[in-house]
Amino acid sequence: MPIYMRGSYFFVRPGQKRFEISSNFTNYLEIGIQGVTEYYLEAKVENDEFKISGTLLNPSGQVLCNINQNFIETSLGCIKEMTPNGYRIKDNDKNQVFEIRVENNICHLKGAIYSESGEIVAREQEDSFLIFRGPAIIGKSNGSIGIKLD
User: Fold this and answer.
1) Does 6 reside within a domain?
2) What is the C-alpha to C-alpha distance for residues 19 and 28, in angstroms, rounded to an integer?
3) How many domains is the chain partitioned into structurally?
4) In the chain, % of residues over pLDDT 70
5) Whole-prediction pTM
6) C-alpha span between 76 and 60 (Å, rounded)
7) Which residue, 79, 98, 116, 124, could crosslink 61 as a Cys pair with Cβ 3.0–4.6 Å?
8) Is the separation of the CB atoms in 85 and 103 below 8 Å?
């Protein structure tokens, strides 16, 4: 029988800046392992700012872009489009690849994280960001982690 966790807070309190992950709230999210898995996403609150870094792949497992603290560093034609509440990353064909949207100190992640084989690792679904497989870390502070998915 599955266990569902909803409305939990990992290393944050209500009112603080936080990410909404699977209807829970956290200060930190890591999907994949930098330098080990082809895909990687790190979302954190640092110095009172939301910062996103990582490597986004397309459904064919090819690298679309590398992001470092909200800036696209390398890309196959990806662009960053600012919005009133965050930003979108779009591919060559102007299709949305990923979006960061902030409302009331809550950062919502929208889009899909693909593995090198094209499998969906995590994605936004019904206004919640769901993780389908690890490795992943949800919540981190001073060397302690909240939940670790292998």
Assistant:
1) no
2) 7
3) 1
4) 97
5) 0.92
6) 13
7) 116
8) yes
Task: Check if the beta carbon of residue 6 is closer than 8 Å to that of residue 25.
Answer: no
Domain with 49 in it = 12-141
In a domain, 19, yes or no: yes
Reported as a single tens digit per residue, the pLDDT across 9-34 is 999 999 999 999 988 999 999 999 99
Q: Does the residue 50 lie in any domain?
A: yes
69 occurs within a structural domain? yes
| DSSP letter string, 51-110 | EEEEEEE-TTS-EEEEEETTEEEEESS-EEEEETTEEEEE-TTS-EEEEEEEETTEEEEE
Cis geometry, peptide bond prior to residue 2 (ω within 30 degrees of 0): no
- Chain segment 106-150, per-residue pLDDT in tens: 999 999 999 999 999 999 988 789 999 989 999 999 999 999 998
